[in-house]
Amino acid sequence: MGSLIIAEKANVALRIASSLSEGKVSRVKVGASTILKFQREGSDYSVLSLRGHVVELDYPKELSSWRIDNLKRLVQEKPIESVKIKGLEYALKKLNDENSSVIVATDYDREGELIGVETLRIMERNNGIKRARFSALTKYDLVQSFENLTDVDYNLAGSAEAREIIDLMWGAALTRFFSVTTKRLGGEFISVGRVQSPTLTILVEKEMEIRNFVPVKYWDISIVVNGTKFNYEGNPIKKKEEAERLLEILRGNSAVLVKEKNDKERKIYRPAPFSTTEFLRDANKIGISVERAMAIAETLYQHGKISYPRTDNTVYPRTLSIKSILSNLSDSYLKKEVDHLTTHSKLIPSRGRVETTDHPPIYPTSSLKKSELKGDYFKIYDLIARRFLATVAENADVLDSEYAVETGGLKFIYTATKAVNRGWMDYYPIVYYQEKRDPELKVGQEANFTEPKIDEKSTNPPPRYTQGSLLEKMEKELLGTKSTRHEIIQKLYDRGFIEGNPIRVRPLGMAMGESLILNSEAVARPEMTARLEQEMDQIAGGSKKKEEVVEDSRSMLSGLLDDLIGKSDRISEKFYETLKLEKVVGKCPKCGSDLIIDYSNNSRYIKCTGPSNDFFQYLPKMGKIEVTDEKCPVCNLFLIKVIRKGERPETRCVDNKCSYNTSRETFGKCPSDGGNLVLRRSKMSTRFIGCSNYPNCKVTLSIPQKMDIIPTNKKCAIDDFPMAIFKYGKEEVEQCLNSKCSSRSGKKSENSK
Length: 753
Hints:
- This protein has 753 residues and is α+β, with helices and mostly antiparallel strands.
- The chain has 21 helices and 30 strands.
- A 6-stranded mixed sheet has the order 2-3-4-1-7-8, sandwiched between helices.
- Strand 19 and strand 20 form a beta hairpin.
- The protein is globular and about 95 Å long.
- The model is unreliable at 747-753 (pLDDT under 50).
């Protein structure tokens, strides 16, 4: 009899089999599952690949009705387990009989351990069990892990199972309560979760802080000396009169005396190795959402390009060979950087604050050429590889030259800065440092100054959270885990609570958040969730039992529901009061009632809230909508502004059929069937021009996305397509709409007819 290896995913299973067998792998079918078979040192091995969790939890059918009166029973009910993958039970039972031992080789974290234990339960296996633990899918790492097998960590699996049960319990009970209470059922249900809701509350409170912020005016005075702007030492100035008085003093002088120049050296310390949170934060800084960054990192890991991407560790273990990784990277597109690094650095890695023993920080495990990965996949790999280089490079040395000059008894200051040694900044793309030119003045020197002026400014509200900074806040508040935080943030987008990055809370999110803050501190605040996270850590450490923590959570939730049910009317009232206020964008031009922006069935619209519903207009699906105070010159309704990423804001009449819009969106007749060629948008908001007789006529024309295109009522003499004016920056070119027309093969200036 042989050994059965349980892998979490198909490509991981193949890498395990290939690494342990020198590539000699065969495939056989066992039921609906494909099994990889190989021999190693005279022993037979079979590898079964799963697809994540094999068991799912749910409540009995009799509790499927969303009613307030059965919520307490729901909390007390034990969830039912069912196997997710059809035919898996048969395959596992057969493989169990055919193999004398089982090696769990799922991801080594809480979820991976639980997946392994779930599989063992289905097999009813309780002996001959071992665990392979690895942090990278390279041949070396895999061979080492299978030559040093350990035991399955049932406590670690228990902590993951406790979280799964508790999250189902809290999510089901609270989602049903708030959805029924606010009468938002079906596709418009209100999603509430143990981690999701306090995360939303953090964003809502930030939004409230920004809205309540009252800007305060202040004034700055500056002069220009030797081409460099010097600022008055007394900035900011609180009164305009004082600023004007000082400006008069400056106008009575024309030269400054250089009083001081102090040179100071400082270091800009290299970054720590990548934990999951740090990685996702920096991925977000280069324009990739945390959800997508994590999905790409998972794919790169499964293909052996990077180490395991779910880790809190910020200290490379001593067993990790820095020189081997650099040697590997020297065969890649980073050869020049590696050669420079090995010449100019001692190759002693930086250390972060958190050191764990499960997985190392994220690092590159394979070299590659630029052509091997495209788009965001290359950006993520490059970010991880360059972060590794930065962690073993030297600190940067910077020279600051602080100047102080004086005129009319007023002191002005400026600091020049120059990198004496760029160190790690030569390797990493995210560097918050900018050199400032040195005016090269000497102490005791007199120099003329120009452009004395006052700048009126205002204090700024606190910045909104980005996805990256929200991740850091969640980590600080113990909300979620390294494996789940990015998923929680994505859920808030998917549920319609938030939008954009920096993150702006949408009306539904504000209504939900304010209702929670005023009526349920336990759900709104992170303390309860943080307490449960600590208890799950205690399960993993063996100091608490899974059943004990689940029962504690049941008791907590049951008491919370009693409190919430007693506040049902208050919650509903506050929810709709806030929702209405958030959605109001103006007054109905017909009856004077409030106009609101609302959403339904993947569409959005402006509608009147009056009893007769006198006004209704669909809005563009993509882009932020701002209602302006301007009137449409054609129909006298109000104009709206549509703001889309990467495009100039579009101003249009709120009435979609108004000629103010149609005249700018209709370019002429289609030469194929005589229909109108009009501006359209795809589901992804990409602009194109298509025939109004679609689908009978399928003429479409691709157009640039970021420039203005203006109809001309002219035809191209070559292909009969309409002519239009294309605005290339300040240049306007009249040319055929059809990009394939021969008239457009020459230079821009020669394209018009």
